[in-house]
Amino acid sequence: MSIVLTPLHYIYLIFILIIIAAMIKKRDISLICIIGILLLGLVGTGSLYHSTMGVFNSFVYATKELMPTIFIISVIVAMSHVLIESGINEEIVYPFKGIIKNYWIAYWVIGIVMMLLSWFFWPSPAVALVGLLFLPIAKKAGLPVIGVAISMNLFGHGIALSSDYVIQAAPKLTADAAGIPVSSVVSASIPLVITMGLVTTITAFYLLRKDIKSGKISTEYTIGDETDEQKPSLVSLSKNLKRVLALITLVLFIVDIFVMYTAKLQGGDATALIGGTAIFILSLISIITYKNEALEKITDNLVKGLQFGFKIFGIVIPIAAFFYLGDSAFTEIYGKILPANSNGIVNDLGVCLANLVPLNAAVASTTLTVVGAITGLDGSGFSGISLAGSVAKLFSTAIGGGVATLTALGQIAAIWVGGGTIIPWAVIPVAAICGVDPFELAKKNIKPVIIGLIVTTIVAMFLI
């Protein structure tokens, strides 16, 4: 697998390093990404006007890719408005209040529920459901909002998405690339997923508890004007009516879960079902709650939801636009400029790294983790896992075995990094629902995830 690196690859790599350095110094990186997009276009096309167009087109591409997530967040926030103003949200979470009595229990219960739902429906629709149900409970239990976000992230976008035991989209991609059965990747991933999951979640909780005790993180909730700090409402519903509407809301989402399972809906389809249901609930409760003002209130809440969604995602679009260029977006925006055998800038860099290192079990495991992490930098997690499977196949041939373990390791590294735990533009769904800064959430996740990857890589060395 021979890949020739071009100036475009080196420019992209240099800008990644600059972006990482800027993030460490807590500086905004939008301008850096815009300059990177412009320079890539200028070097690739040799045309100033084509590269200028490419900046705008990359923004459009990123927005199209993010639009389903923007909309699901927006409609959930819109629905939350009417649930909070009517007091129905208090009735929804009432049954859970007796179980979650402190922030310890809240952290683990929220995470486990998120993991279970994400195994069946993937994290995006699960985020909406878990956030809606558990944020108010976590508030009363004393779990900081950043703690809720960390728990949802690590258990959903980390453990569940990287293992993907139910839907099996991830292991199928890696298994096909490695030329082995899906069942082999799933089996080999079990000890690695357990190791990664335990190390990251326990480490994250330890650091969170330490910050709470030292006063670095307040247990006071500040979820944001759009989702929590509602003005006192003149709406007055009877307790029985609130309970009935709360029951209807829960039943409708439970029906969604049943439909997603029986109809095998996943990804965008599952998100669309949750979103459509949220719009229906928003409309139904608004009609009952606001009566003659329902038409105006529905529109008003939808607008508020969309304003919240675009406010959150606005700062992410330039960043996502740059990193999408590392994959198939580059060809779509600038044309076929990369070498004929190129699999995208990011994947090419991963292949070259794999070709540069000497091979044994330790080096192979370390390289698969690094290759997986590099391919996850685009914020997808899935774009580079086929490469991980291909590299695992090459390495296993050289060292005489371990293809399933290496494949599973590359898959875990790629998805933990890019699937939504430490890339700021990938943690947006959880950050938006919880009302936290995505960069702050990514920063909190970095240390547990890095420690987890190191320990998991060491375990893999002994399993090969």
Helix-strand blueprint:
Layout: H1 7-24, H2 30-45, H3 48-86, H4 88-93, H5 103-121, H6 123-141, H7 145-163, H8 169-178, H9 182-214, H10 239-262, H11 267-290, H12 294-314, H13 317-324, H14 329-334, H15 345-356, H16 361-375, H17 385-399, H18 403-421, H19 428-434, H20 438-463
Helix pairs in contact: 1-2, 1-15, 2-3, 2-13, 3-6, 3-11, 3-12, 3-13, 3-19, 5-6, 5-7, 6-7, 6-11, 6-19, 7-9, 7-18, 7-19, 7-20, 8-9, 8-17, 8-18, 9-18, 9-20, 10-11, 11-12, 15-16, 16-17, 16-18, 16-20, 17-18, 18-20
What are the salient characteristics of this protein?
464 residues; 77% helix; globular; transmembrane helix; transmembrane
Structural summary, described in words:
By secondary structure, this protein is mainly α. The protein has a domain at 67-167 and 221-313. Helix content is 77%, strand content 0%. It contains 20 helices and no strands. The relative contact order is 0.16. It comes from Clostridium magnum DSM 2767. Keywords: Membrane, Transmembrane, Transmembrane helix. This is Transporter. The chain crosses the membrane at residues 6-24, 31-51, 66-84, 104-122, 188-208, 244-264, 270-290, 302-325, 413-434, 446-463.
